[in-house]
Each structure stands twice: as structure tokens, then as C-alpha cells.
Amino acid sequence: MKREIIQTEDGSTTIHLTDLNESYHSKHGAIQEAYHVFIKNGLSLFEGKSVSILEIGFGTGLNTFITYLEGLKSYKEINYTGIEAYPISASEVAQMNYVQELEAQESSNIFDLIHNCPWEVPFSITPHFSLIKRQQLFQDISEVNSYDLIYFDAFGFRVQPELWSEEIFQLMYNSLKNEGVLVTYACRSSIKKAMLAVGFEVEKLPGAPGKREMLRAFKR
């Protein structure tokens, strides 16, 4: 499948799958979307606490890196699990400009470490941020009551509707602790219906730039 590196509207890069006309992040701004959906409406709910995060779609490592940067400010400890069935290449990682766009040159070694640390084993990025990257299909996630927060960042419903099914959201619900939270950029009625069907409480929130709404779901 043909892939190309493109620049999004906020200056940050992403990967575009030309055959599917689908990108890893919003063309309206990769960094803007990550902060709005996953930090503002997800991670910020756990400010001052330790938090265990599951990311559905590790991809370019943007969400992981931004979460690390936010963790330097006001979080006790972050344990991060990134699931990715098809890891991107080292050459693609090298073309991501997140360190520059985030003005995080002092943490450029951390971005490199996020991508270069081994897969399938827990790795301490710092004493307060641990990461495990798993090469795994989302359908094979089997944890129960393990996470406080899920970043649901799969490819869109248009190209992979099976990733937005009741079956997948049941796995997400099972993997969350009580009072856990799932956030996603999407806001299709069928997605909300699937979330509700497995027991989530769901709310619509204003979306990231270029998208009217997003969804946030709670396990009560």
C-alpha cells in the first residue's frame, strides 16, 4: 500500500495512505488533534494522579510523546501501553517533525527512545514513565480491569469499520478499571450505539479543529 509523509495544517507531519485516502492523524493538524482529544479531554481528568493508559494505534508515537511531555508537569506516574499491528519504519519515524513543532528539543532523545526501545517488554523511559509496545491486533486484547484511560485512535470507520464494532468496544470496556475513560476523535452515531450497547456511558464533546464533535465514554 502506497504511503507518503504529508504536512498537516498546524505544521506537524503524518503518514497518508494514498490508496485508502486515510491518514494517521487529522489533516487539519496532527498535534492539535492529539492535544484536544487525548490530553484535554482524556489525560487531564487524571491530573495529579498515577494513570495507566492503553493506546489503540501507537502509529507514529505522537500521542505517546505528547503524553510523556504532559507527564512532566503534573502526573505522578504514567504506565503506557501502545498497541500497533503494523509498526511504521525507522525512515518514517525520522521524517516526523514532532520534536521541532512541539519545541521539545530537550526531549528529542525521549522521542527516539520511544521508538527504539524493544517491543513486547515493559521499558522505563524515565522513572515516572514506563512504556510497553505490543505488536498485536486490537481484536486480541484480553486484559481485564487494567487501565484508567484508553486513547482510541484507530483508522476511521470508513476504511476499517470492524475496529469500531460492539466486539471491539466490549474488549475496551473489559480492559478498563471501574471509572475508567475512553476518548476518541470519532463521533458517528453507529459508534456511539456500539459503545452504549456494551455498557459505556457516552457523551459528545466539541471536536478537534476540522471536526464538529468527538466521543468520550465512561465505565461506571
Distance between the termini: 41 Å
CATH class membership: Alpha Beta
DSSP summary, beta strand count: 11
Low-confidence stretches: none
Helix content: 25-40%
* CATH fold field value: Rossmann fold
Net shape: globular
Order of helices and strands: EEEHEHEHHHEEEHEHEE
CATH superfamily: Vaccinia Virus protein VP39
Overall radius of gyration:
16 Å
Strand order of the largest sheet: 6-7-5-4-8-9-11-10
Number of helices: 7
Write structural notes for this entry.
This protein is of the alpha/beta class and 220 residues long. It has one domain: Vaccinia Virus protein VP39 (Rossmann fold). The strands form 2 sheets. An 8-stranded mixed β-sheet has the order 6-7-5-4-8-9-11-10, sandwiched between helices. A 3-stranded antiparallel β-sheet has the order 1-2-3, with no helix packed on it. α1 packs across α2. The longest helix has 13 residues. The mean pLDDT is 97.
